[in-house]
Amino acid sequence: MSKKNSSAWQALTAHRQHIADVTISEMFAADNDRFNKFSLRHHDLLLDYSKQQVTKDTVQLLCALAEESNLQQAIRDLFNGAIVNQTEQRPALHMELRNSETNRSEIATVLVQMAEFVSKMQSSDYTDVIVLGIGGSDLGPRLVCEALAPYKISSLNIHFVANVDSDTLTPLLKSLDYNTTACIINSKTFTTIETLANAAIVKTWLDSNATSSIWAVTAHVKNATAFGVKPEHIFAFWDWVGGRYSVWSAVGLPIALSLGIDNFRRVLAGAHAMDQHFYATELSKNIPVMQALIGIWNINFLNYNTLAIQPYADGLQLLPAYLQQLEMESNGKAAENSGGFVDYQTAPVIWGGVGCNGQHAYMQMLHQGTQIVPVDFLVARRSCNEPQELQQLLIASCLGQSQALMTGRKDPLYYKVCPGNRPSTTIMFDVITPEIIGTLIAMYEHKVFVQGTIWQIQPFDQWGVQLGKDLITDVLGLLRGGELNQVDNSTAGLVRYALTR
Ligand code: F6P
Question: Is 329 marked active-site?
Fold first, then answer.
């Protein structure tokens, strides 16, 4: 039976008809305490979802949908290490990585190994570290290092290289000294073609220093030793950590190198606090749950199929890209857990950019376009650096944009009219800290899990990327002289053109 036929889903469909003509502004007019009723707190993080097109009945019906989906049991299963990743027969225990009281001793062992490595590197002659990795082996450490730049304590220069682009790698290598440069190869499988292609070039460039200056972070140690990484230079993690959930593992080593192990532990602590909130809080007061349910309301009942992420902080410019992988690689699926395919929308298209820049790029469309795009706005009360008046302008911009999306503006000139009634959520916190970064990432991880549970899809595998990986290898063969008459006419034509000199 399709989830759409469930009684909770049917009730929401009926409710949608009932409130279709009630605007968000009218909801505020009807209740001058709406902000307090439709916002949640977790330490200094405030989640304001009062500018979403929901009433208390909507929230009640959405929570009923969550209960009908046995969400509370699913959360317990997740934390208890049940096989929640059915297609790969694995648990998903990234939360254990940030639980300082975990009984998984291997986690503490690797954290000690990381701390020792950081300490050794701080007192070494190394000046630069190249970090090779892509997807979850790049986005997490890169995002956190950027977001927490004000907390950098190391003199080491960290250079992230993800893509296979000589116009990035070659100039970088030319700018570095191979005698004072280390390399960390971040790859869960240690089979990713992009990472290994870059690693081969860097290994050659390191020349006689290669063996002593290359470290690896992987769940497949044999593949790393086969590449030539010394066993004592390998930081292990485990198959029960998904790639896009791995920033908390040794994949986060660049964070510890840049910020120090204590700040890395602070990131873990912020995430752990969100885990505890998520595990123990009732649905309607549960921040990741409410984010997930609001998303389901917008996607499955209001038919808004994209979500813009707009953080008002340059240090969070990578957050949209990070969440693209987290949300779209986790829930960009149609296969239904009991077999067959869903007949409703699942993951939204995640995109975005920093505010205020977005206001001078795509916000025109969000205010007057034909598509309604819900937005997650994020803003801090304070910046890490002075002067604070710039932060005041960021806050004014963030709040002004969300207000404009909601209220719109009438005008006698039709082309100046902004229709309004465009939903957004605002996430506000005091200042960017290691803890808040951990909290934000964990919050979105749990939101994704809740949506996957309700959509009855599998958030922890990624079979859809395999076809592309296989075809890359096939086309490489064609570019290296393979038979062109076996492929489609476009690929053959493009290969011929690519080989034209
Ligand atoms: O995009 C597919 C994927 O497997 C991601 O899930 C993963 O984060 C990325 O490729 C890199 O994989 P690895 O860490 O094994 O190199």
Answer: yes
